[in-house]
């Protein structure tokens, strides 16, 4: 399968570890995934609060560009970008909305192109044997809390998995050798959008997610969302003060754990860039016997 790749804005900034590890894993797996030329911001977190038409027209331009460049599917790493681009895809199926978007972006849309999360692609488009052949350092003994956040699984019309108990990332972690823990906060909001407007509420929500991951026995949290990762990683110290206890939970992107399991260098994956120290836990995992 050939994919158009939409990196989005966060993967060179607050989500740089995601960008580095996604690029490394895509190259390692030799996937036919090419960045969409001249892509633009999808408008996440702002456009839909300003203008409903703009909120789907901005991401629709990326779909139009992908079509022009010969792609039938668009791979989207960022959960927020996925939600906005998927919403544009769904809207483009309606002829009236499609014409409105075409007028705004001055491009044609067929309504046939499909947006998919990078997580979904890694799980459903790479078979077990192909993935297993790449694993050099399985994640045996690592207990992970798979945290999907709000944006990949809600609302139903654009969800990539079940809203209450998604399992896509759990299955990927199992294939890498890790043990996903059972917990009830997989899709609870981490409060990332409230950290500037209502910081006390935001920190409380962050603390709750981290607390229940720890209570479930997790050694770490794994996510597909730059906003969630930034919030749970960068604000973990504040959350610890709120809870009155130490947590010490590394927050990983699923691509970082994939790359580590493939034997790729930690620095290449961005594992040295975290706020909560993230390399020691992985280095402590048992090294498989050679031969």
- CA gyration radius, whole angstroms: 19 Å
The SSE string, one letter per element, is EHEHHEHHEHHEHEHEHHEHHH
% residues in beta strands: 5-15%
Tally of individual helices: 14
What is the structural class? alpha/beta
Termini, distance in Å? Answer: 34 Å
**Which runs of at least 5 residues are low in confidence (pLDDT < 50)?**
none
Quantity of strands, as a count: 8
Protein name: Heterodisulfide reductase subunit B
GO molecular function, one term: oxidoreductase activity
Keywords: Oxidoreductase
Organism: Heliophilum fasciatum
Describe it.
This protein is an alpha/beta fold and 291 residues long. The chain folds into two domains: 2-120, Glutathione S-transferase Yfyf (Class Pi), Chain A, domain 2, CATH 1.20.1050.140; 134-283, Rossmann fold (3-Layer(aba) Sandwich). Helix content is 45%, strand content 10%. It is built from 14 helices and eight strands. The protein has helices at residues 16-28, 47-50, 52-68, 79-91, 95-105, 118-124, 128-132, 168-176, 199-215, 226-234, 236-243, 254-261, 266-269, 279-283; strands at 2-5, 32-35, 73-76, 114-117, 143-146, 179-180, 220-223, 251-253. The chain has a four-stranded parallel beta sheet with strand order 2-1-3-4. Strands 6-5-7-8 form a four-stranded parallel beta sheet, sandwiched between helices. Helix 3 packs across helix 5 (95-105). The model has no long low-confidence stretch (mean pLDDT 94).
